[in-house]
Amino acid sequence: MITDVAPGPDTGRVHRHVEHVMGMPISLALRGSHADTAVGRRAWASVMDQLREVDRVFSTYRHDSVVNRLDRGELTVDQCPRDVPEVLALGRVAEDESGGAFSIWLPDDNGRRRLDPSGIVKGWAVQRASRELSALDDTDFSLSAGGDMVCHTTDPDRAPWRIGIEHPLHPGTLIAVVPVRSGAVATSGAAHRGQHIIDARTGRPARGVASVTVIGPSLTWADIDATAAYAHGREAADWLRARIGRTALVVWPDATTTIIDGAAHPVPASQARPMG
Amino acid sequence: MKRIVLWLASTATVLVLLFGYRTSTNATPLSAGASIASAGRAGATSAAPSSTSSSGTSTAADASTAAGASTAAASASPSSTSPAAAAAATTSYTGSVAQTRWGPVQVDITVSAGHISAVDVVQYPQGNGRDQQINAYALPILVQDTLNAQSAKIDMVSGATVTSNGYVQSLQSALDQAGL
């Protein structure tokens, strides 16, 4: 098991950027050759351009967004940008794999199911936008959207990024630290926005868990899995254990924790060799 | 050299997993797998991975392409589909691989077929000691209550979603300001 959490040799100065889009802060930490070059800044500008375009298409807060027009029946899926069917397809997979606890069709105040792909879009969009940064030569980055991030380290001898996991019951303090070289970290919890994660099976807020952090290779799925696990409430840890290779931290309402080692639980035979 | 071998092994395994990814759910990933296989058979000239990939070093891209070609050729036969139909079904395939000492394989693949896309493969190769190491992500380390961001020497904060309104008071904001 990896325990080298201490900062390693010369990692260079970390350069940071912050901008806001999709109603949340996007924070970037860069180190290495392009941490402070025009090329690096252009990559960051491209990341933000991508995310602003995603917001224009997918925001549920914008009356004229593509997703809201689709939900109102003013557009068909065929008339939407190609990203829309891609996200809808991801939503179907996520709903299926979470046993219906996660859904992009959530009940509104009147009980009508509304299209709300927000639970998919952030992780998916940031993972995709991060390619602009991973194209930078000899440059490490950590790109966070409101607390969910993609990390990338180009040199194995450099220290991993150190990611603090916020204590869900005591916001502003940490409950854990996780070193990440290349991979994603996503946390779902209720600390900052109240009870906002719905168990789509019941249509009611999930209960029985304070926060779920998932560490994995892709923010798309780390984010989905963190939300889906949270939606499972007391079964959050059990559900995560049944996923393939997810490393995770579950914090319970009484501040006890469960750590799930993604490398320790073998892939079920049905998922390991699905060919044929 | 050993690293290259790790590369080939891991990429090959991931591709094998890709071929079978969620085949039981619907037909789209099947055709995706088949089309990638056909690209490999064609000699990997038009190998989709390079068209949209923007990650990794050129060494990494070469290694993964090579592995993709050979794996595709080796395992394509059981599920051979019409290459033409399969190629038409695939509109994008992005390989994004990052190698580190521990070899976490980061592969993000998007496949579009008509209106439907099956998105990234996040399976880990498992089953032997080497694969276990490839899979290894460090576990979160619990810290003392009330440990603040400064004393923990962290780079970023992961937590429940911070909105733009709440950002000013957030831990991440403190980190960002410290670094600006």
What's the helix and strand layout?
The complex is a heterodimer of chains A (276) and B (180).
Chain A: E1 15-21, E2 24-32, H1 38-58, H2 66-71, H3 83-97, E3 105-107, E4 113-115, H4 118-129, H5 131-134, E5 139-145, E6 148-152, E7 161-166, E8 174-180, E9 183-189, E10 198-199, E11 204-205, E12 211-216, H6 219-231, H7 236-241, E13 247-251, E14 257-260, H8 269-272
Antiparallel strand pairs in A: 1-2, 2-5, 3-4, 5-6, 6-9, 7-8, 9-12, 10-11, 12-13, 13-14
Helix pairs in contact in A: 1-4, 4-6
Chain B: H1 2-20, H2 28-41, H3 48-52, H4 58-75, H5 83-89, E1 111-113, E2 116-118, H6 129-135, E3 141-147, H7 149-152, E4 156-158, H8 171-179
Antiparallel strand pairs in B: 1-2
Helix pairs in contact in B: 1-4, 2-4, 2-5
Provide the descriptors you would attach to this structure in a database record.
heterodimer, A: 276 residues, alpha+beta, eight-stranded antiparallel sheet, 8 helices, disordered C terminus, B: 180 residues, mainly alpha, two-stranded antiparallel sheet, elongated
